[in-house]
Design a protein that fits this description.
Layout lengths: L1 H17 L7 H13 L3 E4 L6 H12 L3 E5 L7 H4 E7 L5 E7 L6 E5 L6 H4 L1 H8 L1 E4 L2 E4 L5 E6 L12 H4 L4 E4 L5 H13 L11 H11 L6 H12 L10 H6 E3 L3 H17 L7 H12 L4 E2 L1 H5 L4 H19 L1
Parallel strand pairs: 1-8, 1-9, 2-5, 5-8
Antiparallel strand pairs: 3-4, 6-7, 10-11
């Protein structure tokens, strides 16, 4: 029990330290930390200027981790991400090939405007994100743990972009929408701009500390009825299932993959630990459901024609499954 309270306190100190720089994005900060502690990756979608890049740079300072930033452009090549073989010469004149590691070899990797690169370049991230390895020629290189890819995309400038393929979207643990700050938060941001005080950040965790927290997250208990809720929620998004929600049958073309159910449980466990609990609850899963499922559901033409998005459909599906779960208990 002491380990649990200590872990909760450590996560809180990390959040508070990030709050010295990032204002008004508490849900985004929480989501990124959930992905880091859950061992997954995160996709942030929002207009420019909302602090997405600043967040990951701040996270690297607070967690004392290596950080790299990759600016995705149409001419970016896979070797610019993972690295390439280069020819070396020694003093005697003999030549040999050596692998020059790319920016993917960091703990925290910012894939900025990921949808501006070609599908070939985007696919260079797939092996790194899923297997935590990079293969060059016949040699496979292991990436250092912890490893988090935080990708960003701009929802308004779609010209000259390449939408992420479903296989890659599914590898993101969460897709988080970064929204505008409210008036009070915006006033605080402007105030900090005026005073221009240099904020000194103190590292609160290191790589070993994060890995130990991950281990604690995996020890969070999952009751059978909570596990059933996660499974029912994913099944309710699949239109060809008998237990699909009516909105799913009408508006969803493809529902969430099984990875969605796994992600609900993993993210929910981290959230439970953040709240100081050693067991997962239905409320934890409900709280992370939108971010976990919004990029795993593909809508059909009727949904677009009727003005529906995942933001209007998923809450109704969640409400229906929650009511059903409450009735059977």
């Amino acid at each position: 029990m002491s380990d649990l309270s200590a872990a909760t306190q450590r996560i809180k100190t990390v959040t508070d330290e990030i709050g010295k720089i990032i204002v008004g994005q508490d849900e985004v900060v929480q989501g990124v930390l959930i992905c880091l502690l859950g061992g997954g990756h995160v996709l942030l979608e929002g207009v420019p200027g909302l602090g997405k890049t600043t967040l990951l740079r701040t996270l690297s300072r607070v967690l004392h981790l290596k950080y790299s930033r990759i600016q995705f452009t149409p001419d970016l090549m896979p070797a610019d991400i993972v690295g390439s073989m280069i020819l070396d010469s020694d003093a005697s004149g003999s030549k040999s090939f050596r692998f020059q590691a790319g920016p993917i070899f960091s703990n925290l990797v910012l894939a900025d405007e990921i949808n501006r690169a070609t599908p070939k370049t985007q696919s260079a991230l797939l092996e790194a994100m899923q297997e935590r390895t990079v293969t060059s020629g016949t040699t496979t290189h292991q990436l250092e743990s912890p490893f988090l890819v935080m990708a960003t995309q701009n929802p308004i400038e779609m010209e000259g972009t390449y939408p992420l393929p479903e296989a890659q979207l599914d590898r993101f643990l969460m897709k988080i929408l970064v929204r505008y700050p409210n008036r009070a938060d915006l006033a605080a941001i402007v105030e900090r701009t005026i005073t221009r005080d240099d904020v000194q950040l103190t590292p609160q965790l290191d790589g070993d500390g994060i890995l130990s927290l991950r281990k604690l997250c995996r020890e969070v208990l999952v009751a059978p009825h909570v596990q059933d809720f996660a499974v029912d929620l994913v099944m309710a998004t699949q239109p060809d299932q008998s237990q699909a929600h009516p909105l799913a049958k009408k508006y969803i073309r493809y529902g969430s993959s099984p990875r969605g159910a796994q992600s609900l449980v993993e993210c929910g466990r981290v959230l439970a630990l953040m709240k100081g609990r050693a067991h997962l609850s239905i409320d934890d899963i409900s709280q992370v459901a939108q971010s976990v499922l919004r990029h795993r559901v593909i809508l059909n033409f009727d949904a677009h024609a009727d003005g529906h998005t995942t933001e209007t459909i998923l809450p109704e599906i969640l409400k229906g499954v929650t009511s059903q779960a409450a009735a059977t208990r």
